[in-house]
Design brief:
Layout: H1 3-9, H2 14-28, H3 33-63
Organism: Dyadobacter linearis
Protein name: Sec-independent protein translocase protein TatA
Main location: membrane
């Protein structure tokens, strides 16, 4: 799904995105933003890996008759 579609689904337009970005810039500062995005990316990656493991465990348990 494209990011524009996701943002439109959430009800965010261009002006709202601009104000959120401005708020983040003012609140955290320009030097802190890359660190925050890196942490967010790592969190998303861990979530994907955990959900993949759960899916594999469920599929494996459905294949193994006990």
């Amino acid at each position: 799904m494209e990011s524009a579609t996701v943002l439109a689904f959430m009800g965010l337009g261009g002006q709202e995105i601009f104000f959120v970005a401005l708020f983040v810039l003012l609140f955290f500062g320009a030097k802190k933003i890359p660190e925050l995005m890196r942490g967010l990316g790592q969190g998303i990656n861990e979530f994907k890996n955990a959900s993949k493991d759960v899916k594999e465990n469920i599929e494996k348990s459905m294949e193994d008759p006990k």
